Amino acid sequence: MSDLPVMLDKVSVRAGAVSILDGIDLLIAPGAPTLVVGPNGSGKSTLLRVCMGLTQPSEGAITWGGRPDVKPTRRAFLFQRPVMLRRSAAANVAYGLRQAGSKRADIHGRVVALLERVGLGDLAQRPARKLSGGEQQRLALARALARDPDLLLLDEPTANLDPAATRAVEEILRSAAASGIKIVMASHDLGQVRRLAGDVVFLVRGQLREQGAAEGFLNSPQTPEAAAFVRGDLVI
Ligand SMILES: Nc1ncnc2c1ncn2[C@@H]1O[C@H](COP(=O)(O)OP(=O)(O)OP(=O)(O)O)[C@@H](O)[C@H]1O
Ligand SMILES: [Mg+2]
Asked: Which pLDDT value is given to residue 15?
């Protein structure tokens, strides 16, 4: 059973009188990565949380693979700052595998394979919280991949990383996408959009202002706000 496509039908999220997301219609289907961009406070994190089922719409509806369930089955979420158990890197991945229902006998082999997949094979026994920020984010990716997701949602996973660590994470995401995992990722970084995105979702003040191929968004944005954002001078 797949969680794809994810379909949002006029989804709004409100906190009291404040509108955080406003009437979002969005279809997330298999394919190249979708990058969610927009200024600070435009609703990127909230949109990702809705797509994971962590935040309920105040209005509108969301379905995963046609089902209105909110229990994550084939989707995983990565936060800007990874949350690690106070145990080894390997134990963190093993935890993810147990949560995903892996058989005991398979766990050791899968831990090794997942750590290799994110380039942490040599650091399996290191305490996870002693790893660098970039290594922790790669470990968080291994733990997310342990769920065998068909949808991976990421909220600015490289915001605290230097360029080399950012590229390492992007490389893992590229190969995850090539293996058929749908990536949906919030980002502030237009270079990252250029490097990774198949398409772009552009939010301003909780509204979806533009959506389409990354190349079109970057080279010929359709709205004045998107043009200003791409130039780097959108002031809200
Ligand atoms: N639970 C909440 N209660 C009230 N306001 C909220 C709540 N969650 C988010 N907001 C507000 O909604 C707006 C959108 O927040 P969100 O975190 O989704 O934006 P964002 O695009 O991810 O921003 P950033 O680029 O800073 O990460 C912000 O103005 C935020 O303060
Ligand atoms: Mg955010």
From this structure: 95
Tokens 């968004």, residue located:
217
Q: What does the alpha-carbon distance between residue 7 and residue 63 come to, in Å, rounded to a whole number?
A: 5
Given ligand 1 and candidates 37, 44, 49, 187, which is best to mutate, with the most ligand atoms within 8 Å of its CB?
A: 44
Q: Is the pLDDT of residue 79 over 70?
A: yes
To test ligand 1's pocket by mutation, which of 11, 14, 18 has the most ligand atoms within 8 angstroms of CB? 18
Q: What is the CA radius of gyration of the chain?
A: 18
Task: Tell me the HSE value of 97 on the side-chain side, using a 13 A CA sphere.
Answer: 22
Atom of ligand 1 nearest to the CA of 39: 25
Q: Which domains does the chain have, with CATH numbers?
A: 1-74+150-236 (3.40.50.300), 84-148 (no CATH)
Instruction: Please say whether the beta carbons of 52 and 36 come within 8 A.
Output: no
CB of 17 within 6 A of ligand 1: the answer is: no
Is the confidence at residue 115, as pLDDT, over 80?
A: yes
Q: Which amino acid is at 166?
A: T
pLDDT attached to residue 26: 98
Span from the CA of 156 to the centroid of ligand 2 (angstroms): 7
